[in-house]
């Protein structure tokens, strides 16, 4: 053990240290570090939680990557059929990191009731559709059974549309689908609501209704083996751009790929701004915490001026004495980090488990409960970064020790 650390340890344990004039300022500095780490942890957890939640909701309705025919169709409606007999379907083996692939088709229609009507995008799904992601959205009933040999009229409707149409679970309704030749009589289908979902994402809740894909195939006069496009889900969303290119290079030349990021650029540009906000909050809090620690360090130096004079008279170098106070400051920062982590992790866990904090305007953030997501390495990096940056900020103020004269410091005692 070096003597600087030994002296710093003795100072920390001394009763005078805990009852001195500087004790109150030291406690304030520790509290500032603790509050700072709590706020930074909450900022990261809520910012990333919101990003992950929105990513998941958009991907649930669209997949991470879509494979379709080359066409000039900018709408959501499937116009050109795509043969389901592809080398990459039903299992994509040429590209690693593929979680699931499913075939779907979309057709626009109008739901008509006795009192009102609403436009709708009927998304046709089949037996390969992965309902797991929708489980979090299901509020009433069950999912449509689309795996039977015969097509059925069961649908999954959003709570938003059910309210506007004054429909409930178990009700039936008629939907009109226009043909390519608008002069012909529209196709009419009667559906039964077997499930109601609520994703909180109004862009999709106000439009999407899930039906048996065979309805879309029959109305479009497609064969059983023809679909609108494929939705691909990958293991790691952070690799979506790389996987989009890999998939494009591995599929036939007459097919195209589009990631959900390029399909909804404004949504993902918006949530990417959360990163800027997180870094800005972290930067401000570290600066404030560092300033508080500088104040505490200067008070400690003034409080221990006689000791500094004695150490200098005994031959200690300025850097050696500075290290004593830096060790002392690092200990104070560590105490603040300890309490901050205990309280911060408890708050994050409580919100993640019980979700007691909610947005006052959930439609703006596409979720009612404030979501939480934070990883262990985020907490570790946050603690190490805060400790290192605060200590570095103390290097310059500790230089004041070199200006203290041993004679005047001993007389000051």
TrEMBL record:
It is a multi-pass membrane protein. GO terms for cellular component: plasma membrane protein complex. It is found in: Cell membrane. Residues 28-220 form the MacB-like periplasmic core domain. The chain crosses the membrane at residues 21-50, 278-303, 324-349, 376-401. Keywords: Cell membrane, Lipoprotein, Membrane, Transmembrane, Transmembrane helix. One of its GO terms (biological process) is lipoprotein localization to outer membrane. It comes from the Bacteria. Residues 280-406 form the ABC3 transporter permease C-terminal domain. Belongs to the ABC-4 integral membrane protein family. LolC/E subfamily. This is Lipoprotein-releasing system permease protein. The lineage of its organism: Bacteria, Pseudomonadati, Bacteroidota, Flavobacteriia, Flavobacteriales.
